[in-house]
Write a structure and sequence with these properties.
The complex is a heterodimer. By secondary structure, chain A is mainly α. Chain A contains 9 helices and no strands. Chain A is elongated and about 60 Å long. The relative contact order of chain A is 0.11. The model of chain A is unreliable at 97-107 (pLDDT under 50). Chain B has helices at residues 8-14, 20-32, 34-52, 62-94, 98-120, 130-154, 159-168, 177-189, 193-204, 210-219, 226-239, 245-253, 259-272. The relative contact order of chain B is 0.04. The chains are: A mainly alpha, B mainly alpha. Chains A and B meet through helix 2, helix 3, helix 6, helix 7 and helix 9 of A and helix 1, helix 3 and helix 4 of B.
Chain lengths: 186, 273
């Protein structure tokens, strides 16, 4: 087993041992995919973006100094890939592929508690998708990627104070959008 | 009634971003204020639900795609390196010497004309072996070009440029009398000791050439630097050149000879004879 730290591996990649990126891929492609999926809510697109992030890490390996954590650097690059994606879809008009989920749920037996819960969670996921990208990303990084505020600050290149404000605002927006979706459904 | 409590604290409490002291403060407040407690419960429930949101797995071919991407990237880096290395060397060569650039251009024009003529000449006129002759002529032209560059560099007032000239000899496969002469003259006369040492090293590559050997033996008495004297003695020992014994003995007769050099030379003479 390879016990080298992420930073040590990435520094090796930086100095020319490009194969070490394979180990980082094994460690991080799942969480990275999760981040991209929650940001875009599109599976295929997230697959492409994930490869793109690893490609960018190779290409800009010289910018990795080893001062910060590898994963914050990775999410920083991933975030730029997401940004580029949103820029493109805004130009072309976005299309979500999220809704196929509801059809798989048994309709009409909402009395079942489990189904009820699943619907609620689905609504929350849709609410998350309706947040502004700025608000969505802080919640995704905090909840799904389990980053601390200080790490989020590094990824977004803003102060920790600004992260606190943004997370708080995002939580409120999520609550409101979710509540709005719930009352629409009932 | 509206509680004026800082609600941001609740979010930070939920995310474990409070100090122990702050946390205790929030907890106390939550026991006292119903409004904040309701708000807190709502946030916590939502945060808990968010955790249950599905995160799909990447598809099975993600690894395959990554491997392919990595391979093609490595290829592109490798060919990129080669390209930049060649480009860098060409630039280094022509930097500050427009005459070389012009010379090479002319050479390319001549080569182009030569090839053009060779491809288009009437078959009947084509004498057997003439293409070989032309190729040999071109090769020798390139060789001459390299020699000229090296000799010009050796005349340069900057020591580092002269060193570049010396290192250039590694590009020349077979050295002729002129090149040997230029190198030996540098070995004996160059004011910079590093240039002389480097020249000595370059010359040892051609030690099979009798001219070079002869020159090296003669150079022993020309050197006044202890470094070069010992280096030359070492080369002689390496080449097992017995003709060096005589000049080495002569060197020992010099009164101001460095003591360390003296012992080294005595040792060399002993091992050569």
């Amino acid at each position: 087993m390879n016990t080298l730290s992420d930073n040590a591996l990435m520094l090796k990649v930086r100095s020319g041992d490009l194969d070490k990126m394979g180990l980082l891929f094994q460690r991080y492609h799942r969480p990275l995919y999760g981040f991209l999926f929650h940001m875009t809510q599109q599976r295929e697109v997230s697959e492409d973006m994930m490869q793109n992030v690893f490609y960018r890490m190779l290409r800009s390996r010289h910018t990795f100094t080893g001062e910060g954590e590898f994963r914050t650097w990775m999410y920083h690059l991933a975030r730029n890939v997401v940004k580029d994606h949103f820029k493109q879809t805004r130009r072309r008009g976005s299309h979500h592929e999220i809704s196929d989920y509801e059809e798989r749920l048994p309709a009409g037996i909402a009395a079942d508690e489990q189904v009820e819960r699943k619907l609620e969670i689905k609504a929350l996921e849709r609410a998350l998708g309706n947040l502004s990208p700025e608000n969505r990303e802080v919640l995704v990084l905090s909840r799904f990627q389990e980053l601390k505020y200080a790490e989020i600050a590094e990824v977004l290149e803003i102060s920790v104070g600004a992260v606190k404000v943004r997370v708080h605002r995002a939580m409120h927006q999520l609550k409101e959008v979710y509540w709005h979706l719930e009352t629409q459904n009932k | 009634m509206k509680c004026g409590y800082d609600k941001e604290q609740l979010t930070r409490f939920l995310h474990g971003e409070l100090s122990a002291e702050e946390q205790a403060g929030v907890e106390t407040h939550l026991t006292e204020c119903n409004e904040c407690r309701r708000e807190w419960e709502g946030l916590r429930a939502m945060w808990g639900m968010l955790e249950e949101v599905d995160t799909p797995e990447p598809s099975a071919d993600a690894q395959v795609r990554f491997d392919a991407m990595l391979d093609s990237y490595k290829d592109s880096v490798r060919s990129g390196d080669r390209r930049t290395a060649l480009w860098w060397r060409l630039r280094e060569l022509f930097r500050g010497y427009p005459a070389f650039a012009l010379g090479y251009s002319l050479l390319l024009v001549v080569a182009g004309l030569g090839f053009g003529y060779w491809f288009h000449r009437p078959a009947a006129v084509a004498a057997a072996g003439s293409d070989k002759q032309e190729l040999a002529a071109l090769t020798s032209q390139v060789g001459e070009m390299r020699e000229m560059i090296m000799k010009t560099l050796l005349q340069n007032p900057s020591a580092s440029e002269r060193m570049r000239g010396v290192s250039y000899t590694s590009e020349i496969k077979t050295v002729n009398k002129d090149v040997v002469g230029a190198l030996l003259s540098t070995l004996n006369n160059d004011p910079n000791i590093n240039v002389r040492l480097m020249t000595l090293e370059a010359l040892t590559h051609y030690a099979n050439n009798p001219l070079v050997r002869e020159g090296l033996v003669q150079s022993i008495l020309q050197q006044d630097s202890p470094l070069l004297q010992t280096a030359l003695a070492e080369v002689m020992l390496h080449l097992q050149e017995k003709r060096a014994i005589h000049p080495l003995k002569k060197l020992l007769q010099q009164k101001d000879l460095n003591e360390m050099v003296r012992t080294r030379i005595q040792e060399t003479i002993f091992r050569l004879s």
